[in-house]
Write a structure and sequence with these properties.
Blueprint lengths: L8 H12 L2 H12 L6 H19 L12 H24 L6 H48 L6 H6 L6 H43 L20
Keywords: Membrane, Transmembrane, Transmembrane helix
InterPro entries: MFS_trans_sf
């Protein structure tokens, strides 16, 4: 939204608040759900992954006409999916360990989460840059091919600018700037759609692994208040 629509940070803030504020209610509700002994947290995790994948699927339809309101549906789905995934993973990571591992659980989980965040941010940035370069090359190559093929009929962009710009050098410069901006904008949009598609595959892979790898764990129970008779 900053690069394509020119949004300022204060205009993007409502999109972030839609994701952050409702989680103050969603996190306790998901925790209470996972604390029910009949509820398998693996099923909660798979449901969260499915909802997250659905939000990414909606993101694959992104185009240059999207504004802030178009992201609200995705964010609301993630309000439900993110607590379901985080709480379920936390239960699977902690409840499967013995009492002797208690002092190390927090450090182990937080270290893994922090390292995964850094690695994921680097991978997504690299993928976004590579896909943006790929789409930019393809768009400019297609334009050049069609421009040469349709040159006898004239360039539509040049026809729009020619009545307003008499200097040929200035006209050529404005055409270059116009094409560069349009190609960069469209390449970024296509790269974002590619990232959403890749994330759908990641959700599907984690969904499949969750069906075979983790073992069933149960929520902690309060100790019995009845002492044995002596």
């Amino acid at each position: 939204m900053e690069e394509v629509r020119g949004y300022r940070p204060i205009q993007i803030a409502p999109v972030m608040l839609i994701l952050a504020v409702p989680q103050l209610l969603a996190l306790p509700l998901v925790s209470a759900l996972c604390n029910i002994r009949r509820v398998d947290c693996r099923h909660v995790l798979m449901a969260g992954l499915a909802i997250q994948g659905l939000s990414y699927f909606l993101g694959t339809w992104i185009d240059a006409d999207w504004v802030r309101e178009n992201f609200y549906a995705m964010q609301l789905l993630q309000v439900a999916s993110e607590p379901m995934m985080v709480i379920a993973i936390l239960m699977l990571a902690t409840m499967g360990l013995g009492p002797a591992d208690g002092p190390f659980i927090s450090g182990m989980f937080n270290m893994t989460k922090g390292l995964a965040n850094a690695i994921a941010a680097g991978i997504i940035s690299a993928l976004l840059r590579r896909r943006e370069q790929f789409h930019s090359t393809m768009l400019l190559d297609t334009y050049g091919t069609n421009h040469n093929a349709l040159q006898p009929w004239g360039d539509p962009a040049q026809g729009l600018l020619a009545p307003h710009i008499a200097d040929p050098a200035r006209l050529e410069w404005n055409l270059t700037v116009l094409m560069h901006g349009a190609a960069s904008e469209q390449a970024l949009i296509l790269a974002c759609a590619d990232i959403y598609t890749i994330m759908i595959g990641v959700c599907a892979a984690l969904f499949a692994l969750n069906m075979v790898l983790p073992q069933r764990v149960y929520p902690p129970r309060a100790p019995s208040m009845t002492a044995p008779a002596r």
